[in-house]
Every structure is written in structure tokens, then in C-alpha cells.
Amino acid sequence: MKAMIIGGDRIDTTRRVLQASGYADILHWSGRKPADLTRPLPSGVDHIVIMLDFINHNLARRVRDMARERQISVAYVGRKRQGGPEVATGRPGAARALHSA
């Protein structure tokens, strides 16, 4: 299975959680490049994690719309004031807490 992370600089923890959930191939877009707004989604992506605090609204909206067209599951991650962020792995009931490492 293939997952994609959009946004963020330090994605190692998120990557490890996705790998533990069965995603063998994990792609990453920083979301900082203006060209990211026009990039097509790679084929074969099963799940997308959008790190909301690190990308602009236009990119988040565009990725969400492309995911809907292809029926790809999407998880939105934001910073929490207490505790670590959570990443949904795309499987029902399988959200795992991430701890800063």
C-alpha cells in the first residue's frame, strides 16, 4: 500500500506510524513549493495525511478535492496543545498517538 504525507519538515514519526500500519511506500510533499499547487497526485496512493499547520488553505483544499475524486482516504493532522498529534492510518478505528521523539 502507498501513503502520502503533505506538509511538515520532520515526518519521521508519522512515517514510522504509517509503516507500522502496513504502508510500505510513503511519499512526501513539503507543501512549500508553489509548484505543489499544480502537481498531480501520484498513481496508486491509498491514503493521504495532510499536516494542516504546514501548508496553505489552497493546497489543502486542492488535495482534498483530488482525493475525493479518486476515493482516497484523508487524515488531517494539526498541532495539539496537550499531548502529541494523532495520525489516522486509513483503517477504521486505527488512529495512533504519535509522541515526539
What's the gist of this structure?
With 101 residues, this protein is an alpha/beta fold. The protein contains 2 helices and 6 strands.
What does this structure look like?
With 101 residues, this protein is of the alpha/beta class. The protein has a single domain (2-97), classed as Rossmann fold. Helices cover 23% and strands 28% of the residues. The protein is built from two helices and six strands. It has helices at residues 12-20, 57-70, and strands at 2-6, 25-29, 45-51, 73-77, 86-88, 95-97. The strands form two sheets. The chain has a four-stranded parallel sheet, sandwiched between helices. Residues 81-85 and 92-101 have low confidence and may be disordered. It comes from Vogesella amnigena.
Mean model confidence by pLDDT: 80
Rg is 13 Å
Helical run tally:
2
The CATH class assignment is Alpha Beta
InterPro entries: UCP020408
Family: Belongs to the UPF0751 family.
Region (Disordered): 80-101
Protein name: DUF2325 domain-containing protein
